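Section 5.1 Outputs to date
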Amino acid sequence: MTEGDLRRIEKRLNVRLPAEYREVMLRFPIRFLAGNAESALWDDAEELIRQNEELRGTTAVEGRVGQSVTAWLPHFLFIGGDVELSWVLDLRQSPCRVLEVDHWDVSAYHEPYEEAAAFTDWVEQYLDDYRKDGVDLSSEEDPVRPIPKACACAAIGFIVVVAIAGGVIRLLEFLREH
């Protein structure tokens, strides 16, 4: 994002973006996600504006990636994610905090939630998750992230169970016929 993009977000949404958010977005840290509107941290000013306007708009909002049951108050700023899990800045707090929100529902956050991660800590954790997977954040190409071993083992286990179950069913059918 550019300084102009950030000013446009502030003007259209009538908010003051926190300095720590501005700093990260001006030097977006994940090169292959630059300009995205699909990750936990969107880098597309127009999509951010549109999604926030929709979430603030009415009592039942069809958003880009989901539905909100209540209109968001202006101190909430959607920064990324999707309907199942979104990340939202609480602009009432300094330093600003990142809330994890399920299904666009911010109703639990009437008061500032002090236990939420500070934005700078949240960004570091987000980047560390990529680094732990061996992802080069400076790469222009979106790397294929390796499948964690636990997921691979679970998938293999599932396939084995299905294969065994299929064999047992065929054996039972065979025995019933003979």
